[in-house]
């Protein structure tokens, strides 16, 4: 399983993740990215058909703000 959230303390609103994985990432009112599937809590299991997009977004973030792990974030 895969779970993800954005560290908004380091996101610089570059926009790459939303372009790469629009089904996972969206932007809040400040333009910072967040996981749209679970309110950026990292508790919703990412559907397997989105794993490739998630990998691309994670590796493409210039500030390494996209966190991914195989269990839910606390
Ligand atoms: Fe922010 Fe990285 Fe996305 S800087 S907008 S989390 S690609």
How would you sum up this structure in a few lines?
The protein has 74 residues and is an alpha+beta fold. The chain is 20% helix and 19% strand.
Helix-strand blueprint:
Elements: E1 3-6, H1 16-20, E2 25-27, E3 33-35, H2 51-60, E4 66-69
Antiparallel strand pairs: 1-4, 2-3
Bound molecules: FE3-S4 cluster.
Secondary-structure content class: alpha+beta
Write out the strand line-up for the largest beta sheet, numbering strands in chain order.
1-4
The number of helical elements comes to: 2
**Helix content range:** 10-25%
Mean pLDDT over the residues: 98
Largest sheet: 2 strands, antiparallel
What does this entry look like structurally?
The model has no long low-confidence stretch (mean pLDDT 98). The protein is 20% helix and 19% strand. The two termini are 15 Å apart. It has helices at residues 16-20, 51-60; strands spanning 3-6, 25-27, 33-35, 66-69. Strands 1-4 form a two-stranded antiparallel ribbon. It has a two-stranded antiparallel ribbon with strand order 2-3. A hairpin with a 5-residue loop joins β2 (25-27) and β3. The chain has 74 residues and is an alpha+beta fold. It has 2 helices and 4 strands, in the order βαββαβ. Bound molecules: FE3-S4 cluster (F3S). The site of FE3-S4 cluster (F3S) has 14 residues, from α1.
